[in-house]
Amino acid sequence: MKANCWMGRTTVEVREVPDPKILNSRDAIIRITASAICGSDLHLYNGYVPTMKKGDILGHEFMGEVVELGSEVRNLKIGDRVVVPFPISCGRCASCRAGLYSVCENSNPNAGMAEKLMGHSPSGIFGYSHMLGGYPGGQAQYARVPFADVGPVKVDDDLSDEQALFLSDILPTGWMGAEMCDIKPGDTIAVWGAGPVGQFAMASAFLMGAERVIAIDRFPYRLRRAERAGAETLDYEEVNVLEALRDMTAGRGPDACIDAVGMEAHHPVAVMHAYDRARQATRMETERPHALREAIMSCRNGGIVSVIGVYGGLLDKFPMGALMNRSLTLRAGQCHVQRYMEPLMGRIRNGDIDPTMVISHRMRLEDAPEGFAMFRDKQDDCNKIVLRP
Ligand code: NAD
Ligand code: ZN
Ligand code: ZN
User: β-strand 153-154 against 81-84: which pairing, if any?
Assistant: First the structure.
């Protein structure tokens, strides 16, 4: 089959690779009909995650048709259309039973690698480095889906691929980002990063009763998208974000702040990779404002900072003093996607959310290298790319 493979820093290549096979009785093989490129893929593309190997198949947002099933998967049939959540989760461990699917205890065979960096291991993730399980991803014609008896959700014919695809990740992620803000009617929510994840966080914040949403980014086309969704906007290259947010909130600051930027921050602080001790590698460094630091510094006293932007390693210059002295709450996580898929599918059906709004480009799988470069550089008003294997 064809698959989009990581071949080194800023290099991906569509290659011929062996078809996946059923390895366990709870596996399914999916023939992929739609797959997407995510901001999280850019962390791998830009080389911020060191446990990638040449030839690793990328992609964690995908859906398709079931073509083969392990003996223990009884909830699916050959031919079913399914959308697959990006965290690989057993459904049975203490974390999964508590609804904390992205920290499943049974899905990362390389947990030791993750523990070195993070203390404990989160779940495995499709196409997301060996530290997170080394699972081949879904920017491919086929994928093996472990724990298929509990992960994938059936999609009926009334929903198109493009309506259902983002249930795999970015729609639930944006929703969880807003949910972690404990939004009360009348609240003002600020969102750093007006990418697809930020856009879904904004839409979710409004659905949860936020009165005002303030979007912060530097790309005019993305700020215009936020504006069309009802948000006020700040271009962080034009204004001092801390001062502007103060002015807009009677000096108090937003009730909650969402970081939908992560490591890809345009003005990153140092991200240190603990495992790179030999070189004490400082991948990114600058004194300019950083999204997470701004979110913490601008949040109102007693407010909530919700981090859905992805980080790895250690983050330097973290304003712990503000967090402690001003009674802030910090919440974070890879999305517990499985928790949100069914309820959000209901909201797509009843018209509360139209996930297709984020799509700007549709490409063939073969064009993934061009897609990665375009999405990374935000060329051609690139917002979200769907690949059709
Ligand atoms: P994206 O690259 O399309 O969007 C990121 C946006 O952040 C860009 O528009 C960029 O201009 C903006 N930005 C950069 N620096 C900024 C700054 N200092 N202040 C304000 N905005 C800034 O990516 P995306 O697909 O929208 O994903 C966003 C983040 O969400 C990524 O870190 C991704 O890894 C993460 N993510 C997390 C989860 C999860 O489960 N928690 C799931 C999916 C994606
Ligand atoms: Zn993603
Ligand atoms: Zn589990």
Answer: antiparallel
